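Quick start: what a row looks like.
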Amino acid sequence: MTPWGRAITALRLLEIDPKGLKGIVLHARSGPVRDAFLARIPSQCVRLHPQMNQDTLTGGIDVSTSLSEGTLVRQRGLLDAHKRHFVLTMAERTPPLMAASIASMLDTGTGNTVIM
């Protein structure tokens, strides 16, 4: 089986059992081949960057809305979604706190998957 065939098989298995697999590891350079692979993902795909703000990932206090409304308002993070694919490029550069947040999200069984 060719590398492309193995990658497509892995993607099909991820579509069949996202809660069981929780993700796949893809070794491909940035370019048209990786883009063609990611285009085959059927549902919403969100790209994550290793240096992304922790509040963006896990949510936090919305300061401006809290001040204007006079009550504590929280904003949801990207990882709070359900049945979403996350693409983590440059996963080897992910800081420990972000890696722990992603692992925690996978452990909760939300149906989210990570493609690295």
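That is the whole record. Residues 3-16 form the longest helix (14 residues). The chain has a mean pLDDT of 87.
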